[in-house]
Design a protein that fits this description.
four-stranded antiparallel β-sheet, alpha+beta, 81 residues
Length: 81
């Protein structure tokens, strides 16, 4: 998994199927098969959280991981916390 280059204060969101753990493309529409982007980058934690919450609200079988610029997962967002 190639992590994006983030500046301090930026956050990356990755989507995955809860049941399988399979990573999805950055648009969340397909399984990531090694081609294309898998992360969406945001300039604030608030924006990343809003996006992740909207994804799991619409697609409750998907979870979102939010990573900081140090590649640390700082949040995991699911429809059923």
């Amino acid at each position: 998994m190639k992590f994006p280059s983030l500046r301090a204060g930026q956050f990356a969101v990755v989507q995955a199927e809860i049941e399988t753990g399979i990573i999805l493309t950055s648009d969340g529409l397909n399984r990531h098969l090694g081609v294309g982007e898998m992360f969406r980058v945001f300039d604030s934690l608030n924006s990343a959280l809003e996006f992740a919450r909207s994804v799991v609200h619409i697609r409750p079988r998907v979870e979102c991981g939010i990573y900081d610029s140090g590649q640390n997962q700082i949040h995991r967002v699911t429809a059923h916390p």
